[in-house]
Structures are given as C-alpha cells and as structure tokens.
C-alpha cells in the first residue's frame, strides 16, 4: 500500500500538556512517527497542493490564527508553547480582539492543545499527506495510507483542540467531493469521538460521518458523540454515532463497526475515508478499550469488504512501543 508522509510533520513537539489537573509530557509526540515509520515499507512525500483544499473546510481567519499565534505569543513576552486559558463559552457577543490570549480562547475548545511554533507547519503537511492518499485512491489505488500526525479529527472549521489543528480527514473527504465523487463516507474508529469532522459535515448530506468511540458520558470530548446526534438540515441522518463503554473488546467493537459499515454501504458513497486511531489498543496510556494487535487486521478486512476506494488517515494511538505493530496489523487487513 502507498504510504504518504512528510518529515515536517515531526516538527511539532510541545513540551507539556494539561492532563487531569497537572502538566504531564505531551502524549502526541513526534516519536509516534518514528514508531510507525519503523514498521512500514517506504513512504512517499506528498505533493504540495497548497492552502485551497484546507480552506475548503476551514475558516480563513482560523487558519491565519494558526499561522500567527506563535509570533503573537512571543510578542506578548511569553516563552514556550501558546496555551489558552479563557474561553467565550458563556455566550458573549462576538468581539474582534487581537490579544493572543483572547484569540486562543476564541479558536480553541480545550486547553490540551499547546501551539508550538511548528503547529501549523506540521498540521499543514499532515493534511497534504491525507490529500495525497485521497488523490491516490481517486487515481485507482484500492487503498492508501496517510501517516498523519498531528491528528486532525477534533479540529472543526474554526477551532483546534484534542491535539488537532487541521482536520486532515475532512480535507481528504472534501477533496474527493471536489474531484467529482458524489457522496463520500468517513468512518472514524479512533477511541475518541471525531467532533471536528462531525461539526464540519453536520448540515451536509453529501458526506456521511460514522463514528465508533468511547461514550461521551465518561470520555473526552464529552460534548459530542452521543447516540442521538444525527446531523441537521440536509445532513439529518448523515451522522451516525455508536458510543461504547470503557473496557470494550473486539467482539462488541466489531459489531458496532459492522453497523457503521452497513450504513456506509447503504448510503451510496463512492469513496471512503477512515480516521484510524490505534488508541483503542488495550495498553494505550490515555484510553480504555481492550483491542489487541491482531484485532486490527480483522477490523480492516471488514472495512475492505465494503469495496470502496479507501484513504486511511492516521489519528491517535499513544502507546509508542506498540504503535508500529498496531498500524502494520491494520494496514495488512487491506
Ligand atoms: C486525540 B485523538 C485527558 C485529556 C484528553 C485529549 C485527548 C485527545 C485525543 N485527561 N486529552 O483523538 O487521539
Ligand atoms: Zn483518540
């Protein structure tokens, strides 16, 4: 399988994150890339398709913010990574502020996503890798893998969060639409709900979003991913949420994924984007499912059985020592 990755995706390396009330080492670290590269055959550098496909799903003011934030942070006299601390969640009127701290709160939905000086660059190339995979399958590959990092599925049209800045899966799905695929499906099987992808396509019927994830009653991102979220307007029925309890093992995960695949097969999609997270693995340090390495091959075989051209986009997976084997197992199923 063709694998796309750019070494600039490694540059983003925040020192610490706010985790359960204290600062700990950043879980979404560049060593994740090394672990995946070591387990895969040769990779290709993606072509640079520019900002237009990114701006097809993201707000221009938000993208400018990602580019400017590190400079504004330094100009405010700060060192280290930019971290938000005040959020306009109480329905304040939209005010046009330029102070870095105000911008951070406006454009981030959590405080766990530090913006180092390379956040934009790394996420830009992560999105280009996803675009390359999308174009590979549009040109006839059965499946292609985008070794994305930073992940993207928590990033909405105008917000970052959950280690994500640019939503690579959404960029890839939109590129497939723009290339003429009438309907695209996104299957999200990261441990965490992909709130950003859901939000981006919430009112649209042309991109079907299905997610299997840890239930929001116990797990991040809490405010999205409930079973009764089905989309709105034209998008009503084009969102499917299948939350599962902590401790979930292969049998019930596979059943839920099967329900998502049935819906995808019925929705008339001409191509598929898979947001793949290996944080469903039993030993993941920040998650609570119990999948084993071999399970991923079986899950991927089920996905391949739907018979759609498929761009696999990497999301989470934080047990670095097992990450290569888990990703290789998943890709072997195609
Ligand atoms: C990104 B992806 C737990 C805080 C949660 C954010 C998790 C982001 C996961 N104390 N931190 O979906 O793998
Ligand atoms: Zn995750």
TrEMBL record:
Superkingdom classification of source: Bacteria
Matches recorded under Pfam families: Hist_deacetyl
Keywords: Hydrolase, Metal-binding, Zinc
GO molecular function: histone deacetylase activity; hydrolase activity; metal ion binding
Keyword Chaperone: no
CDD domains the UniProt entry points to: HDAC_classII_APAH
Cofactor dependence: Zn(2+)
GO BP field: epigenetic regulation of gene expression
Descriptive protein name: Acetylpolyamine amidohydrolase
């Amino acid at each position: 399988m063709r694998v796309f990755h750019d070494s600039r995706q490694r540059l983003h390396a925040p020192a610490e994150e706010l985790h359960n009330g204290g600062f700990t080492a950043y879980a979404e670290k560049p060593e994740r890339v090394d672990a995946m590269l070591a387990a895969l055959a040769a990779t290709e550098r993606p072509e640079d398709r520019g900002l237009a496909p990114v701006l097809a799903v993201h707000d221009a003011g938000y993208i400018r913010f990602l580019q400017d934030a590190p400079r504004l942070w330094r100009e405010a006299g700060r060192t280290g990574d930019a971290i938000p601390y005040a959020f306009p969640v109480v329905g304040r009127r939209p005010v046009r502020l330029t102070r870095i701290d105000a911008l951070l709160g406006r454009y981030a939905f959590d405080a766990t996503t530090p913006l180092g000086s390379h956040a934009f660059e790394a996420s830009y190339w992560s999105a280009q890798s996803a675009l390359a995979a999308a174009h590979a399958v549009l040109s006839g590959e059965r499946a292609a893998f985008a070794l994305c990092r930073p992940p993207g599925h928590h990033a909405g049209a105008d917000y970052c969060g959950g280690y994500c800045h640019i939503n690579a899966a959404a960029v890839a799905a939109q590129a497939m639409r723009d290339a003429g695929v009438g309907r695209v499906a996104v299957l999200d099987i990261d441990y965490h709900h992909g709130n950003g992808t859901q939000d981006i396509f919430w009112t649209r019927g042309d991109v079907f979003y299905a997610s299997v994830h840890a239930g929001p009653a116990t797990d991040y991102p809490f405010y999205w991913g409930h079973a009764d979220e089905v989309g709105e307007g034209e998008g009503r029925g084009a969102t499917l949420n299948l939350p599962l309890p902590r401790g979930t093992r292969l049998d019930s995960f596979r059943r839920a994924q099967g329900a998502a695949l049935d819906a995808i097969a019925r929705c008339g999609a001409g191509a598929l984007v898979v947001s793949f997270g290996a944080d469903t693995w039993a030993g993941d340090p920040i998650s609570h499912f119990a999948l084993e390495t071999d399970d991923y091959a079986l899950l991927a075989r089920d996905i391949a059985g739907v018979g759609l051209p498929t761009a696999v986009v990497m999301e989470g997976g934080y047990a670095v020592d097992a990450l290569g084997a888990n990703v290789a197992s998943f890709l072997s199923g195609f």
